[in-house]
Amino acid sequence: MTSTTDIRTRPCPECPVCGSNGSIFYRDLRDTFFGSPGKWSSRKCANPDCRLVWLDPMPLEEDIHKAYQNYFTHEGTAAARWIENIENSQNLPRRLYEAIKRGYWKNRYGYGGGVGGKSYLGYFAYLHPGWRSSFDSAVYFLTARPGGRLLEIGSGGGTELKLMQTLGWEAEGVDRDPDARKNAESRGLLVRLGQLQDQKYPDDYFDAVVSNHVIEHVFDLVDLFREILRILKPGGQFVFITPNIESWGHRVFSNADLMFMDSPRHLYVFSAPSLRRVAQESGFEKIKVFTTIRHAHSLYLSDKAISRTGHFEVGAAVSLQDRLGAKGLQLVEWAVLKVRPTAGEEVVIVGQK
Ligand SMILES: [Zn+2]
User: Per the confidence metrics, is the pTM higher than 0.70?
Assistant: First the structure.
């Protein structure tokens, strides 16, 4: 029986990227984060050079909004308040952390330069691999380029976009969620509504195109990458960060499947080879793929929460014990990456036109 809240689907037995057959990877997944209806299954591409994981059956594009009704980019949710509290916090540890971060960005990426030398405080970031991973991802691994034109796809509430603007980029966003766009505009950001392909940007327009945990939600994957190839300037870069289905944490934690699959919002889950494959299929030649430990601790926290209560809420209160466990796990993963560099929780692709 279907109701008006159900998300309609279509069969999708073949890999949407390379067309190979896939075998069943998961069955009976449900939305443990935002409670949207349905049970979901996924397939993994049998092509060893691809290994993409995708939903089969695939939700219909016109129905997928039903899975986003309580999403965290919406104002007033616990998660939105949590992010806001962190951003506005002014206590001493927070101020110190911010100063280390700014110093690190200056030393490594050249942000806030022009007032000479290196920042000594910035070197403290090297004591904490988890911090460094967050700092690198926050600026999308991009070197400072004052006045450079940057586009963020799926800019959500605008946190990352605002930062890039503050750091000197001429930054704008595109997002298909009117609520998220409204939040971003209230922060003085330019965000266009809809999909990237609807915006009709000129050829060779952007110095950088970036996105953070977005491409796993996008229906026309190869189309999206081709459009990015068109709108990037020659020498321009795109940087996408997305969950890594072949991560160490995914093997270790029993509830990792729920977090990674985030069914039905994650239409795909990538690994280093599948991400490289999409970019190659779309015409990119200069590609670099690596993984990060940034969200290793979130995986630990979501696993604990799901074991206890059956669901996980971004921004929910965390005990000191869990906090320490989570940070410990992040350090372990940092060590694992020294041996297996493709085992981080997120996979990052950097491509150049
Ligand atoms: Zn494939």
Answer: yes
